[in-house]
Design goal:
The protein has 288 residues and is α/β, with parallel strands linked by helices. 43% of the residues lie in helices and 19% in strands. It folds into two domains: 169 residues, Periplasmic binding protein-like II (D-Maltodextrin-Binding Protein, domain 2, 3-Layer(aba) Sandwich), CATH 3.40.190; 97 residues, D-Maltodextrin-Binding Protein, domain 2 (3-Layer(aba) Sandwich).
C-alpha cells in the first residue's frame, strides 16, 4: 500500500510539473513573417531577451499569413500573435483575442502621394482617377489612404477606381500617367525616393498617427501568464527593444517603444476605417 501511495504521489507530481512547464511556455507567431527559419532569424534576439526578462519560454509557431494565424489560434495551437491593427480587429471579432502590448513605431501614418509635376493638388482632385494602394486590407497602405479620400468626400470604388499594385510598379504607373496617386505609409516614401532618384514626389494628404502593431493573446491563456507578459514589456521594454532592433528587418521599430496600457477601444478607429471600404462585419480578412 505504501508503495502504491508513493507511486501515485510521484505520478501526480509529474503531471503537475508537466502542466507547470506547459503553462510557462508560450507559443508565439508573427503574421507577416513566413516560415520558421525566417522567424528565428528576425525574432531570435528578441526571443532570447524576452525569455531572460520574463522567465517564460517562447516557442515560435511559424505561419504563412494572417489567415493561417487566426486559424491556428482557433485550434489552440498558438497563444500570442504579433500582428497589425487591421488584423487585430478580425482576431478580436472572431476569437475574442485581446490586445496585450502595442509595438509602437515612429512616423506611422498614411499618405497620398503624387509626382511633383502632377496637376493633382488635393485628394478631391483624384475623382474619376485610379488610385493604387499597397497590400489589400493593410492599415497604413489601404484603409488609411482610403480614409484620407473619404475625408475629402470621395466614395470608395465609386468616385475613383482602387487598384492594388506592387509599390515599384505603382510608381512606374504613376510616371506613365496610368494612375493618379499612390496610398503609402510614411516610411515607404523614403523607399520609393531611393528607388526612383530622378523623380520628385509630393504628399497631398497626411493621416493621423495610426494605432500600432499589437501583441494579442488568445482568451484561453491563463491571466497570470498574460500579466507576466504585460509586466515584462512594461518593466524591461528598453532591453527588449534593443534586442528586437538588432535585426535589419525590425528597423521600423527603431526609436519606438512598447505600451502595455492598450485596450480594445484603441482600435475603434480601425473599425471606422473598414467602414470606408464598405465593411461593417469584421470576421473575415479583406481580400481573402
Amino acid at each position: 500500500m505504501k508503495h502504491l501511495i508513493l507511486s501515485s504521489l510521484v505520478t501526480l507530481g509529474a503531471v503537475a510539473a508537466s502542466q507547470a512547464i506547459a503553462q510557462e511556455t508560450i507559443r508565439f507567431a508573427v503574421t507577416d513573417i513566413d516560415g520558421l527559419e525566417t522567424l528565428q532569424r528576425e525574432m531570435g534576439p528578441f526571443k532570447d531577451a524576452f525569455e531572460a526578462a520574463s522567465g517564460l519560454k517562447v516557442e515560435f509557431f511559424p505561419v504563412s499569413g494572417r489567415t493561417v494565424a487566426v486559424e491556428a489560434m482557433a485550434a489552440d495551437q498558438v497563444d500570442f500573435v504579433l500582428t497589425g491593427p487591421a488584423e487585430y480587429v478580425v482576431f478580436n471579432a472572431r476569437l475574442n483575442a485581446q490586445p496585450v502590448v502595442t509595438w509602437n513605431r515612429p512616423d506611422y501614418y498614411s499618405t497620398l502621394v503624387v509626382l511633383d509635376q502632377s496637376p493633382v493638388q488635393t485628394p478631391a482632385d483624384l475623382k474619376g482617377m485610379k488610385v493604387s494602394f499597397g497590400e489589400i486590407g493593410s492599415t497604413s497602405q489601404h484603409l488609411g489612404p482610403v480614409t484620407l479620400l473619404a475625408e475629402a468626400g470621395l466614395t470608395y470604388s465609386t468616385d475613383y477606381e482602387p487598384v492594388f499594385l506592387n509599390r515599384n510598379v505603382a510608381v512606374e504607373a504613376l510616371i506613365a500617367g496610368d494612375i493618379g496617386a499612390i496610398g503609402l505609409n510614411r516610411t515607404h516614401i523614403d523607399s520609393i525616393t531611393k528607388k526612383f532618384p530622378d523623380q520628385t514626389f509630393r504628399t497631398i494628404a497626411k493621416g493621423v498617427t495610426l494605432p500600432n502593431d499589437v501583441l494579442l493573446v488568445s482568451p484561453t491563456v491563463a491571466p497570470e501568464i498574460v500579466e507576466t507578459v504585460r509586466k515584462t514589456f512594461a518593466d524591461k521594454g528598453d532591453a527588449l527593444l534593443a534586442a528586437l532592433t538588432t535585426t535589419e528587418e525590425n528597423a521600423k521599430y527603431i526609436g519606438g517603444s512598447f505600451s502595455a496600457t492598450v485596450t480594445d477601444a484603441d482600435y475603434d478607429v480601425v473599425r471606422r476605417m473598414y467602414e470606408n471600404i464598405g465593411i461593417t462585419e469584421f470576421t473575415e480578412f479583406v481580400g481573402q
